[in-house]
């Protein structure tokens, strides 16, 4: 039996169409801006999210940090959620690369209160205060929740009131759009720049996109070079990204349905707690603390069953569905868990 990997959607491998596209890709030196496949990807990606221009970057973290670096001056302050990816999972890069201070706002499952954000904005030209240089949102949030569009709209309007740019960490923005039943442009119109991943649920092997105005991307291109992201014949990777955006976006809701199926089946097991209403995208969070068990033993048992999972974080296991995990394999996961935790 093949390995069933539920640790994350970052484990996805390129599809056969991606591999073929990479093999046949026409490439050039992208630093000279003469890689036609990269240009095609950037033009397509910009139009998809309703921005003037776009830039291929190596990863989501790279794209987020490049955005902070481009929007802000050193010493600026960035307002964002206390549990967002930029704060929690990007190694403190904002202080190293952009040289900015992060001013966090408590969230409710990734959703920020617009009034709290407004209170955090530095409104006075006071010698003691840093300048508010940027507001960041995240959708879908890395906790698996989708932020309502009305919430994003309200935050964006506050930002415009104070002439502050807004960046969207849209690593899984296509998951958010599928969950909300809207076009991705309906989400990205409430930000000035957006980063989204071509990997994860879209299965490209490498790469993300940073999109925004022409002037912003022009500055970001030079900053990308400074950060070491001036790639050469990157069309080999961009070709897979084109397949991701043209084909894989259309089927991403299948992962959501599989996540809901997995969550429902887990909830039927005595002692496992799952909030089905909180399964917005392809992530299932569950609590197994009521079933006293050795975590290392359980993780190894699942591995012996050809199932890869991560140990719990803050008491919660996270299982992530993706293109390479089908319904039959999820049934194997359920039966394996039932065997480990006899009822």
TrEMBL record:
Q: Which SUPFAM superfamilies match?
A: PLP-dependent transferases
Please give an example of a GO cellular component term from this record.
cytosol
Asked if the record carries the keyword Lyase, the reply is yes
Domain of life assignment: Bacteria
Positions of the Aromatic amino acid beta-eliminating lyase/threonine aldolase domain? 5-287
- Which GO-annotated molecular functions does the record name? L-allo-threonine aldolase activity
Names of the cofactor(s):
pyridoxal 5'-phosphate
Query: What Gene3D superfamilies does the entry give?
Result: Aspartate Aminotransferase, domain 1, Type I PLP-dependent aspartate aminotransferase-like (Major domain)
| Pfam family membership, one | Beta_elim_lyase
Q: Which GO terms describe its biological process?
A: glycine biosynthetic process; L-threonine catabolic process
Positions carrying N6-(pyridoxal phosphate)lysine are 200
Give the keywords, sorted. Lyase, Pyridoxal phosphate
- PANTHER family xrefs: L-THREONINE ALDOLASE, L-THREONINE ALDOLASE-RELATED
The entry sums up its family as follows: Belongs to the threonine aldolase family.
* Stored NCBIfam families: GntG_guanitoxin, PRK10534.1
Q: What is this protein called?
A: Low-specificity L-threonine aldolase
Query: Which species is this UniProt entry from?
Result: Anaeromicrobium sediminis
């Amino acid at each position: 039996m093949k390995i069933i990997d539920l640790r994350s959607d970052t484990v996805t491998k390129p599809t056969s169409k991606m591999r073929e596209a990479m093999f046949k890709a026409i490439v050039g030196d992208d630093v000279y801006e003469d890689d036609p496949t990269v240009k095609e990807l950037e033009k397509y990606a910009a139009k998809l999210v309703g921005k003037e221009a776009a830039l291929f970057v190596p990863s989501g973290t790279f794209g987020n940090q490049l955005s902070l670096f481009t929007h802000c001056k050193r010493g600026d302050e960035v307002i964002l959620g206390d549990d967002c990816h930029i704060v929690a999972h990007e190694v403190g890069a904002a202080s190293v690369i952009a040289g900015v201070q992060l001013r966090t706002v408590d969230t409710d499952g990734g959703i920020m209160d617009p009034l709290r954000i407004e209170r955090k904005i530095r409104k006075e030209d006071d010698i003691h205060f840093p300048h508010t240089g940027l507001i960041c949102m995240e959708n879908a949030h890395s906790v698996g929740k989708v932020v309502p569009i009305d919430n994003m709209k309200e935050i964006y309007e506050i930002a415009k009131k104070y002439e502050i740019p807004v960046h969207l960490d849209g690593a899984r923005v296509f998951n958010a759009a599928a969950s909300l039943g809207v076009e991705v442009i309906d989400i990205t119109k409430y930000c000035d720049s957006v980063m989204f991943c071509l990997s994860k649920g879209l299965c490209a092997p490498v790469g993300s996109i940073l999109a925004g105005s022409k002037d912003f991307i022009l500055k970001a291109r030079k900053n990308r070079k400074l950060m070491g992201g001036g790639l050469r014949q990157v069309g080999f990777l961009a070709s897979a990204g084109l397949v991701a955006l043209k084909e894989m976006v259309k089927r991403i809701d299948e992962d959501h349905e599989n996540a809901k199926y997995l969550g429902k089946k887990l909830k039927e097991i005595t002692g496992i707690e799952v909030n089905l209403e909180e399964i917005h995208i392809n992530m299932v969070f569950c609590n197994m603390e009521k079933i006293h068990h050795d975590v290392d033993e359980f993780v190894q048992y699942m591995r012996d069953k050809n199932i890869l999972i991560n140990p719990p974080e803050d008491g919660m296991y996270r299982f992530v569905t993706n293109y390479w995990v089908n319904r039959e394999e999820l049934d194997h996961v359920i039966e394996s868990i039932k065997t480990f935790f006899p009822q």
